[in-house]
């Protein structure tokens, strides 16, 4: 199932994040239902905007990257910020429209904050 624009998950991420955030996409492009497409768009937008205002993209030399992968069981997003201010990259919107079984882990590495989001692949068609 495709979202309303006829795009899958990788197309959504590339469209929202543009060239500002380094993208590494692995696995077959996940096809998303309307709720999951809206959720992914909102998450990517919130992560990028938070990094622009308070995070690594707000300072010279700072950078952000998003690694996304899909396997038979999960859709995984891994957001990493480097060379910027410390802080929590997890936007308040993480709780909005979230798939019921989503798991999120926040971290703070030496280079900057990180956020990993794991969504069961079965819930992507919602």
Tell me the Rg in angstroms.
14 Å
State the major sheet: 5 strands, mixed
- Beta strand %: 25-35%
Q: H/E order of the elements?
A: HEHEEEE
**What's the CATH class label?**
Alpha Beta
Q: For this structure, what is the CATH homologous superfamily?
A: Histidine kinase-like ATPase, C-terminal domain
Average residue pLDDT: 77
Query: Uncertain regions: pLDDT < 50 for 5+ in a row?
Result: 1-6
Any idea what the CATH architecture is?
A: 2-Layer Sandwich
Count of helical regions: 2
- Binned, the helix content reads 10-25%
Tell me what you see in this structure.
This protein is α+β, with helices and mostly antiparallel strands and 126 residues long. It has a single domain (9-125), classed as Heat Shock Protein 90 (2-Layer Sandwich). The chain is 23% helix and 29% strand. The protein has 2 helices and 5 strands. The protein has helices spanning 9-17, 34-53, and strands at 22-26, 63-70, 74-82, 103-108, 113-120. It has a 5-stranded mixed beta sheet, covered by helices on one side. A hairpin with a 4-residue loop joins strand 4 and strand 5. Helix 1 (9-17) runs parallel beside helix 2. The longest helix is centred in the middle third of the chain and has 20 residues, at 34-53. Residues 1-6 have low confidence and may be disordered.
């Amino acid at each position: 199932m495709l979202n309303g624009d006829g795009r899958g998950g990788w197309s959504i991420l590339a469209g929202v994040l543009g060239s500002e955030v380094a993208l590494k996409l692995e696995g077959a492009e996940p096809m998303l239902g309307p709720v999951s497409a809206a959720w992914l768009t909102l998450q990517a937008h919130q992560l990028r905007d938070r990094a622009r205002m308070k995070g690594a993209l707000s300072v010279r030399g700072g950078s952000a990257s998003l690694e996304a992968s899909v396997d038979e069981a999960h859709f995984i997003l891994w957001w990493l910020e480097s060379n910027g201010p410390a802080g929590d990259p997890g936007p308040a919107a993480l709780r909005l429209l979230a798939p019921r079984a989503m798991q999120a882990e926040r971290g703070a590495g030496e280079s900057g904050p990180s956020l990993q989001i794991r969504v069961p692949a079965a819930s992507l068609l919602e």
